[in-house]
Amino acid sequence: MVRFRFSVLAICTTLLLQASLAVAAPHQLWTQLTPVQQEALQPLSTQWDSLTPKLQKNLLHAAKRYPKLTPEEKQRFQSRLETWSKLTPEQRKRAREKFSAFSKVPPEQRQQVKQMVRQQEASKAAASGAAPSTPEH
Amino acid sequence: MNQEFHPEQIKQLLNRSLARLDQPVLARLRDARTEALARYDAHSTVPAFAWIGFGTSHRHAADSHHKFWAAIVLLVALLFSCTAYWHHTTDHEVSDVDIAILTDDLPIEVYVD
């Protein structure tokens, strides 16, 4: 009986330990990444080791899709990585919520909003004297 | 004495003999039967899953705590599986949205407060 209870407790402890390990993502060094991951996350090479394990995990998930992106999407992905990594977890969460909400807007309205944003960006760029950014499509 | 007995006759003879038995003899026979049954119970095969409560009868009631612990193990295993699946799904959903934001044709600042 004692052996049985001990076995049960051992199994429970092991399962809980595994669950906690699954939840806590391990910290990975830049040198431990695969060449494909390094290529996708190149803009973060210098600060990668200082990123939180949770952010690293999210970025590594995203990096899996990198090889399938178009050249234009790859360029956007890499140019935004640094800004994205510098956001707070709360800001990233809010951004995801906004993006998800915006995805549910009807396509015509979405296009209108996108057009407005592009015009605003162009105006800002013109006002600051800089060349307007290349329209993104 | 070469009379042949029909099985039905034998049964009747035995029943009649039984009716004539003394009370002490009957009591001893009853005790012997009880003892034999107890031995049979002790050596009887326990169902394969009896330890988690299947196929048990009142005589295995003492093993109810086994059922309790088995239920705990199953519950923990179930919780672990659900948690792992939930994390796996959530991580994928989050990374899908992340890559969509990072490759969207609107600048990232639009979505950031």
Structure description:
The complex is a heterodimer of chains A (137) and B (113). Chain A has six helices and no strands. Chain A has 137 residues and is mainly alpha-helical. Chain B has three helices and no strands. The model of chain B has no long low-confidence stretch (mean pLDDT 79). Chains A and B meet through helix 1, helix 3, helix 4, helix 5 and helix 6 of A and helix 3 of B.
Output the keywords.
heterodimer, A: 137 residues, mainly alpha, elongated, B: 113 residues, rod-shaped
The total of helices of chain A stands at 6
List the secondary-structure elements of chain B in sequence, H or E.
Answer: HHH
Radius of gyration of chain B: 35 Å
How much of the sequence of chain B is in beta strands?
A: under 5%
Question: What overall form of chain A do the CA principal axes indicate?
Answer: elongated
Please report the distance between the alpha carbons of the first and last residues of chain B: 113 Å
Low-confidence stretches of chain B: none
Helix content of chain B: 55-70%
Radius of gyration of chain A: 22 Å
Q: What oligomeric state is this?
A: heterodimer
Given helix and strand content, the structural type of chain B is mainly alpha
The secondary structure category of chain A is: mainly alpha
In helices, the fraction of residues of chain A equals 55-70%
Mean pLDDT of chain A: 83
Inertia-based shape of chain B: rod-shaped
Break the fold down into its secondary structure elements and pairings.
The complex is a heterodimer of chains A (137) and B (113).
Chain A: H1 2-23, H2 35-40, H3 53-65, H4 71-86, H5 89-103, H6 107-127
Chain B: H1 7-20, H2 23-43, H3 64-103
